Amino acid sequence: MHEHNYPQRTNEFSKAAKPVPPSRRSRSAADLAALQRTVGNAAVSRLVDEARQGVQRSSVDEVLAGSGQPLGEPVRQEMEARLDADFSDVRVHTGDAAQRSAAELGARAYTAGSHVVLGDGGADRHTLAHELTHVIQQRSGPVSGADNGTGLRVSDPSDRFERAAEANATRALAGPTPAKDTETETETEE
User: Which residue intervals are annotated with compositional bias (Basic and acidic residues) in the record (predicted)?
Assistant: First the structure.
């Protein structure tokens, strides 16, 4: 199974990404080779890394700036029953931009607050239950993760929050689909 890295918001996340001057945005191979001869591999590597981080940051910002969609009602009811939580505020982001964003982070899916971004291969029930567990975790406060240099905190698959999300998704989906509470529905209709 593909390892997941899930970004988390930090205080720096809400700040605008540092703009890259046009002269640094589009360097030709010849420009980079000349720069490499002048200042060395380390400087060129930093330049390439900075450009790459700007792309990651902007793709995440682009997706999270969108409104997304609420969970579909049948899926929401099932996941609320399985995970014992209210997901009425969750916004799910799908489509090409979401897939690019997740791919740039090396993830099938990721969560930022109540936003769940589903990348290529991330729309299965297990991944959704895993990500919804991250929503629950983030409601309780900050979660661990290392800043990837763009203001995003990306968790490690071995950290306790990832292990807990994986175990919770497995546990939640192991049993039969919870039955609807018809007694509660009848009371609210009266």
Answer: 156-165
pLDDT tens by residue, 13-65: 322 333 344 444 455 556 555 555 555 555 544 555 555 544 446 789 999 99
Render pLDDT for 104-134 as a digit per residue (tens, 0 to 9). 888 999 999 999 999 999 999 999 999 999 9
Q: What is the dihedral of CA 154, 159, 163, 169, to 10 degrees?
A: -20
**Which residues, at least 6 apart from 139, have a Cβ–Cβ distance to it below 8 Å?**
114
pLDDT averaged over the chain?
77
> What single string gives the DSSP state of each residue in 66-135?
S--EEPPHHHHHHHHHHHTS--TT-EEE-SHHHHHHHHHHT-SEEEETTEEEE-TT--SHHHHHHHHHHH
CA pair distance 24, 8, nearest whole angstrom: 28
